[in-house]
Amino acid sequence: MNNKIYLFLFILVTASCGVAKDLHSKPIFRYVDLYQYGKIELGQDISKFDSLLEKNGDHKFLKQNVFGGSESIQLVQNSQGKISAIIFSYGNETNLRSKIKDYQYLGKLKMEGENASWTDGKTLFEVYEENQIVYAKMTDLLQ
Question: Residue 125 and residue 115: Cα distance in Å, rounded?
Fold first, then answer.
């Protein structure tokens, strides 16, 4: 009888090994839906969207007429030209706490000071305030 219990516990422990994902985490979205213009997703080649972008110095932003819901959307590329992060600027009229509340559906959040973050192992999603402007940043953890 004791051998069966030990065997059962061994199988249970072995089966649960490698489960690094938080049981309360949910998959985080990895794209921006631009409706008639399609979707922009983390990991895609940024040059595919050149017609929708405008440059401001070294930074690339979606043109104002292709999205809604934020003041600006910046696309950050890695050295291979893939989209590694998408940054939403909500301006100084948006309250940080209310924006964090908007994303609580993502699951268990981590607070660092006033800023919040969520991760699902593929994507890091952060809501933070910098110079009195509220931002949300989606970062690809697979690259």
Answer: 11
CA distance 57 to 4: 67
Task: Count Cα atoms within 13 angstroms, Cβ side, for 102.
Answer: 15
Asked if residue 50 lies in contact with residue 36, where contact means CB atoms within 8 angstroms, the answer is: no
Q: Are 100 and 112 in contact (CB under 8 A)?
A: no
Q: CA-CA distance, 132 to 36, in Å (whole number)?
A: 32
What is the C-alpha separation between 115 and 32, in angstroms, rounded? 22
Tokens of 88: 């939403």
pLDDT digits (tens, 9 = 90+) for 90-139: 988 899 999 999 999 999 999 999 999 999 999 999 999 999 999 999 99
